[in-house]
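Whether sequence alone determines local backbone shape is best considered at the level of individual chains. We regard such an encoding as a compact summary of how the chain folds. The sequence in question and its structure tokens are set out directly beneath this paragraph.
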Amino acid sequence: MSVTLRVPTVLRKLTAGQDEIETGGTTVAQVLEEVGGRYNGFLERVRPEPGGVQPFLNLFVNGEDVRFAQGLATPVSDGDEVSIIPSIAGG
């Protein structure tokens, strides 16, 4: 099974410049763990504690916010796209 993780510019220094990573997993958490196993420091930056995500990061599966689904337990299927989107603030 193949899932695409889209990595924002701010995190690409942790993925050797990769903006898209093909990975596996059946949930969003497993996708993040798989990528974290390949790139040192990635998982700690995105998910500093199990079950949580950095407050300034949003996760989407095929454009749907996982906060309105099952959070990190949101299932993913072959061909799905998981996107990490940083929050934008300002005024």
